[in-house]
UniProtKB/TrEMBL annotation:
Its main location: cytoplasm. It is found in: Cytoplasm. GO terms for biological process: trans-translation; trans-translation-dependent protein tagging. Pfam families: SmpB (PF01668). Keywords: Cytoplasm, RNA-binding. Residues 136-158 are annotated as: Disordered. NCBIfam families: PRK05422.1 (NF003843), smpB (TIGR00086). GO terms for cellular component: cytosol. It comes from Allomesorhizobium camelthorni. This is SsrA-binding protein.
Amino acid sequence: MNQKKADPNNKTVAENRKARFSYEVLDTVEAGLALTGTEVKSLRQGQANIQDSYASVEGGEIWLINSYLPEYLQANRFNHEPRRRRKLLLNKREMARLAQSVEREGMTMVPLKIYFNDKGRAKLLLAVAKGKKLHDKRETEKQRDWNREKGRLLKERG
């Protein structure tokens, strides 16, 4: 058997699964994260939470707000603040496009997941999304339940 080993660099660290339920994702952008050394080490241990976080345009830059990266235990006094604002690294054209969609069209920038790419760099998958209303959420729930039930029925009948 020729099994492919999982690349330790290319892995998902944190995922915001609630975002796809609460928002209708219209577009996604891959952004870099400006991190300190202890934040990267904490991420490599697989500890992060972006559940209640969001991105905001301030001063021509885009910031990730309210994300949680726990302190790296071995760093003692050189540690980082767990809930600090982190700058997102995007080119000017992407920043302008995101800022325009947020300001003019009333969209929201929601982080979907943090992962390490092939080169071992920490990246954030940022979504431009529109908030769902309650009836839209119910419709999504119904559709997911039906797909699950359909899979069961097809499996039974062979």
